Amino acid sequence: MRQSLVMGNWKMNGRRAGVQALAAGLKSALVGVSPVEIAVCPPYPFLLLAAADIGPGVALGGQNVSLYNDGAYTGEVSAEMLQDLGCRFAIVGHSERRALFGETDEIVAKKFARARAAGLVPVLCVGETLSERDAGRTEAVVGAQIAAVFAECGSGAFAQAVIAYEPVWAIGTGRAASPGEAQTVHAFIRATVAAQDRSAAEALRILYGGSVKAQNARELFAQNDIDGGLIGGASLDATEFAGICRAAAA
Ligand code: PGA
User: Where are the domains of the chain?
Assistant: First the structure.
């Protein structure tokens, strides 16, 4: 039995006062919500501020990690730094990083390896664009994103890792994948990992992300291969996010 995981990706939002208010709001809204693992990924400058107000029951994650270890890489944040700040998770390969910052499957795979080496749990985001879906290429795209990580890290790559399936057309659009559409891809992802490492595949938590709200979460999380969610917009509202966490705990 895999423990559900719900992660909030705050993206590039917030100011100090708002971050503190959201963290404190989450702390009270999440009282008694179990058994489900919960994490939030604030912008880097607010990691410690959020941690101070959110309490020990919610884990922290980075939204990205550098391709490099510590050194002369101006503007970058290393996986070791995130680990030192108390992060448990690191998102790699979010579609916004892939689309806006030129991150290829190979770069994402190297970041995945950096996160792992620093003792973080990498959360690999995968997903197809609408034109790729319409062309029937969903499995080819997602399969290649996963294959790049196996090529970089070997067949044990996904032991203690997380994959988030986030169809690009569902992110921030209000148009979530249907539970059936998501389940089909999640089953494909698990089978793809199982082909290399059966026991990692069975334990692997595969999150769905893309327009998850409290109101559609329960049906999504009820699917066999959906083990929780990666939540963007709705994670900026404590009540809404707590509602999603409750759906995952049900
Ligand atoms: P959304 O974003 O929940 O706002 O659709 C999800 C994500 O980008 O992780």
Answer: 5-249
Q: Is 94 a catalytic residue?
A: yes
- For ligand 1, atom 6: residue with the closest CA: 232
With a 6 A CB cut-off, is 243 part of the ligand 1 pocket? no
Predicted model pTM = 0.98
The enclosing H or E element of 206 equals strand 205-209
Radius of gyration of the chain (CA): 17
N-terminal to C-terminal alpha carbon distance within the chain: 14
Strand partners, 40: 8, 60
Atom number, ligand 1, closest to the C-alpha of residue 210: 5
The first and second tokens of residue 180, run together, are 């059936």
**CA dist., res. 105 & res. 109, Å (int):** 6
Mutate to test the pocket of ligand 1, among 10, 89, 94, 171 (most ligand atoms within 8 A of CB): 171
* 250 residues of the chain, pLDDT tens digit each: 899 999 999 999 999 999 999 999 999 999 989 899 999 999 999 999 999 999 889 999 999 999 999 999 999 999 999 999 999 999 999 999 999 999 999 999 999 999 999 999 999 999 999 999 999 999 999 999 999 999 999 999 999 999 999 999 999 999 999 999 999 999 999 999 999 999 999 999 999 999 999 999 999 999 999 999 999 999 999 999 999 999 999 8
CATH number for the region 5-249 comes to 3.20.20.70
Annotation says 181 is catalytic: no
Annotate 111-179 with DSSP letters as a single string: HHHHHHHTT-EEEEEE---HHHHHTT-HHHHHHHHHHHHHHHH-TTTTTT-EEEE--GGGTTSS-PPPH
Atom of ligand 1 nearest to the CA of 209: 6
